[in-house]
Task: structure prediction
Amino acid sequence: MSGRIAPFGLLLLFACALLLTACSRLDLAYRNLDLIIPWWISNFVSLDDQQKNWLEPRLQKHLAWHCSTQLPSYVAWLEQFDQMSRQARLTPSDVLGQMTQIRDAMQEVAVQITPTVLGLAKSLTPTQMGELYVSMDEHNAELRAEHAAPPLKAQVQARAQRMRERVEDWIGPLRPTQQARIDTWAKAQGDYNRLWAANRENWQKELRNTLYGRHTQDFSRRLTLLLQQPEASWTPAYRKAYPAVEQALASLLADLFNSADERQRTVLRERIGELSTDLKGLECYPG
Result:
């Protein structure tokens, strides 16, 4: 579960979105990021014309960097994924290795965009700060109402349904035994939604405290830490739970792959091929 994040973290989703998206037209979505990102930011804070003019060339630079330097890595990742999909079996360690690559890709994006985020944050007016905080509170309330407030049984059912939909995007319809495996995983996560929501809000609390001091000497260091090392602001409960949650997800995905029949594996390879073709078809790809 990722949910919505503050606008300063938007670009951090590029790598993960490109590697894991279920979008049938990845190339179309990618080509329109220069329009999508400003629109998305406007859901949280309204930038004035001067800020928009300042952000535009920097956004174009980030997108050009990402397209020319990161896409080859994503294509290589998909090719590696394709080779893995032809193995008879995968272990949870195999899956964890892929997760690590995704995190590394997101880290590269975080480092790249940090100077722009710092500059934009320093330009926010008190009115914009208030608008940002209200937007964050509203989104948090929506996420809690959807994910953390329902009875635990309903949370588990929704969690299982989301996972079934995501897996079926990659391998097609699931068999009853595979659906049962997802149900078991979803139940075993217990009240993870509550931990996740509290951890997310704790990061935002640190962001608010940092933004209050955006004109102090220590501001750049503190915001850089939040962007590039968000785990430093994890709650103790989330930090304790996360390794087991990650391991459980890796075990689930390995089990689903190992139980996939030839039809499902064919769908998976076709899906990987489609994504790879989309990325290679982008103008900036040096292929």
